[in-house]
Every structure is written in C-alpha cells, then in structure tokens.
Amino acid sequence: MYRLIALALLLSACGGAQTVPGYRKPGTDIWSNAVLEVPRLAGDWRQAADFAPPGASCAAGGLTIRPVAAGGLEVSGRLCLGGQARAISGQLAASGPGRFRPSGPGFAGADAEWWVLWADTGYRSLVIGTPSGAFGFALDREGALPADRRAAAREILDWNGYDVTRAVFVD
Length: 171
Known about the structure:
Residues 110-166 form the Lipocalin/cytosolic fatty-acid binding domain. It holds the Pfam family Lipocalin_2. Residues 1-19 form the signal peptide. The protein has helices at residues 2-17, 147-159; strands at residues 43-51, 62-67, 73-81, 84-96, 99-103, 114-119, 125-129, 136-140, 167-169. It is of the alpha+beta class. The chain has a single domain, classed as Calycin beta-barrel core domain (Lipocalin, Beta Barrel). The protein has an eight-stranded antiparallel beta barrel with strand order 1-2-3-4-5-6-7-8.
C-alpha cells in the first residue's frame, strides 16, 4: 500500500515538472488577425503591455518593424517579456494570416510563433500573442494605450484565453 502511494506521489511530481508556464488557459481557442495589412505595421512601436509574474517587472521596450519579402517582417528592439528585458532582432517569416515564425538567435526567449491578435483600424495599436501563451504583449505608436484601446486590448486578450489579471499596462 505504501509503495503505491509513494509511486503515485512520484508520478504526480514528474507530471508537474513537465508543465510549461504561460499566460493563457491551456486548450482555449486563439485567433490571429486574418485581414492584417502587413505593410501598415512598418515603423516604430512602443511597448504598452506585458504579462509578468507577481513582483517581476522591467521597463517597457519597443520595436522597429519593417515589412520584407513574402509578407514577412524584420524586427529590432527590446521588449519586456515575462518581467525580463529581451533584445529582439531578426526576421519573422509569414506563416499564415497574421502569423509570423521567428528565425535565428535574435529571438531568445521570444522564439514562439507570434500571432497578431488585434490591430486597431488606424494601426496605432497591436496585440501580439502566442498559441502556447508563453508571452503576450501590446504595442502602440505613442506608448501608453488610451482608455478605449486599452479596454479593447484587454477584451481581445481575454477572448483569446489570456489571464488578463496578469497583464501589466504602461501608464
């Protein structure tokens, strides 16, 4: 009997070690922006939100985005992801509507497929996430999101399974 209990405890401990932390509820649906106009992403963006564990924080970063061949993007800058500053540089190959696959070493810690979940109609704000929920963030041309776009970003993240209680927005 004691051996069975010990075995059950051992197996449950092993199973817990294999789970990947993330900011999305596992198994929930996620949608990318199917009508994304990639050329309108060109320019400088400032980070407006991130997901971070309690107590972790870093200064919001930003990205410069340049469209490249075949609907892909070239990005460079620094982002705060999961409360840690990450240098980002390289190309994101188009992998579907509103979906981009990073390539190269310039995406350490941000190498999951990037999905544009939302862009406002003026392409002033973006919400980017990953199917795994490994990270998610919002970008804005000016920095902090105005109240209406902040509310929209929260709704989009929530709709796509993100735990918005863990979102940290720039004020």
